[in-house]
Specification:
single chain, 430 residues, alpha/beta, TIM Barrel, binds D-xylose, binds nickel (II) ion
Amino acid sequence: MTDFFAACPSVTFEGSDTDNEFAFRHYDPEAVVMGKKLKDHLRFAIAYWHSFAWPGGDPFGGQTFERPWFGNSMEAARLKADVAFDLFSRLGAPYFCFHDADVRPEGATFAESEDRLKEITDIFAAKMEETGVKLLWGTANLFSHRRFMAGAATNPDPEIYAYAAATVKSCMDATNALNGENYVLWGGREGYETLLNTDLRRERAQAGAFLQRVVEYKHKIGFEGTILIEPKPQEPTKHQYDFDVATVYGFLKEFGLEKEVKVNIEQGHAILAGHSFEHELALAASLDILGSIDMNRNDYQSGWDTDQFPDNPREVALAYYEVLRAGGFTTGGTNFDAKLRRQSLDAEDLLLAHVGGMDVCARGLMAAAAMLEDGGLEAMRAERYAGWDNNDLTSLGLEEIHSAVRGSTHSPEPKSGRQERLENYVSRFV
Ligand code: XLS
Ligand code: NI
Ligand code: NI
C-alpha cells in the first residue's frame, strides 16, 4: 500500500457550517434532489492523467511534482494505481477515467505496450471489485508520442493510421473488460498546422472511416457503453477537425454516425471555441448527442486550456441546468479534467482541489434543480414562444405569407427579451 495521502483524512459531508477543510460543505452524496441522489446526478470521475501522470511542467520549465510513482517501470505503474485508488476512496468518488499512456509505461513494441496495459487492467479490475469504484470512460492517448505528431487517424502515413487503430482496439478492449460506461475519442492531433502540407479532404475522410470502424468494433464485442467524441477547437493543432459541438454533429451526419456517437463536452474547450459551456450543452441536447462532461474552468484571459478546477457556482449551475433539462446523465458523468497549478506540490493540494470542485458542482447542480423545479425560466420561455403553439406558419410558402401580410393593416410590435430580469432570477438561486 501507499502512505502518500496518509496526512489526509477521508472526506465526508459535514454541511456548510463546518470549518473542516477535509469535509464536503455542499456535496452530500445521499441527498435527494429531483427524485435522485446527488451522487447519481453528478457521477463524479477523477482523471488519471492530470492527477497522477502530469509532472507539473509548462512551456518554460519541466517537472515540479516529485511523486514516488514517477518512472517508467511497471513497479511504478502499480504504485500509481495504489495511490489513485486510495484517492478515489478517500473522496468517495464513484468513477475514474484513464488513457493507456497514463497507466502503463510505453513498451519497446506495440505488443509489449498492450501486454502492460492488460496487466494494469487486471489490477484495476481487482481494485474496482474491492472498492466499488467504476470506470466512467477509457480512451487512447493518440497525441503525446512523437509518432502521432502529424495526427493519428488523419495521419498522412498509413502506418501511423494502423498503429492508432490497433491502439484504439486495445483501449476499447480494456474499457470493455472493466465495464466502462463510455469510450472517449479526443482528436488531439486530428487537425493541421498548415494547409501548405495538408490534404484536408483526405484527412477528414480518414477520420470518418476510422470512427465507422470504431463503431463497428463496439458492436462486434458487445460493448454497451457510449462512444463519445470530445470537441476542441485548437491546441495542440492550430486547426482541429472536431472544433465544437456543431462541427462534430456535421461530421457525424456526413459519416452516418449521428445515432451512434455522442459528445463529451469540456468547459474549457467550449470557452476556447468562443462559446459558453451551457451553449455547447444546450446545442448537444437539442441534437440528441449530449453524452458526458469534462468539468474544469479556463482562465478567461490567457486563451489556452488551463484545466483549472471549477470554482464558479453560477457558471456550473447554468451548465447543470442544461444537463437536467435534457433529463440528466445516462451513461455520462462529471469527469474532473482539471489539474493542480504547478506550485501546488502537496498531497493535500491534490485531494482538496477535488473536494472544492465536487462542492462547487454540488452547489451548481442543486441550484439548477431548484430553478428547474421552480419553473421560472421555463414559464418565461413558454410565454415568449407562445405565439408558435398550434401555429403551422413555417409550412406556408412565401407567396401565401406575403399575401396575408400585405392584406393586413396590423403591424407587429417587438416585446422585451427581459434579460436582466432573468439574470436577477438566476441570482436568487446561486
Ligand atoms: C485535452 C482533453 C483530454 C481529453 C481526453 O484537452 O481534454 O484531456 O479529455 O483525451
Ligand atoms: Ni481539455
Ligand atoms: Ni477533456
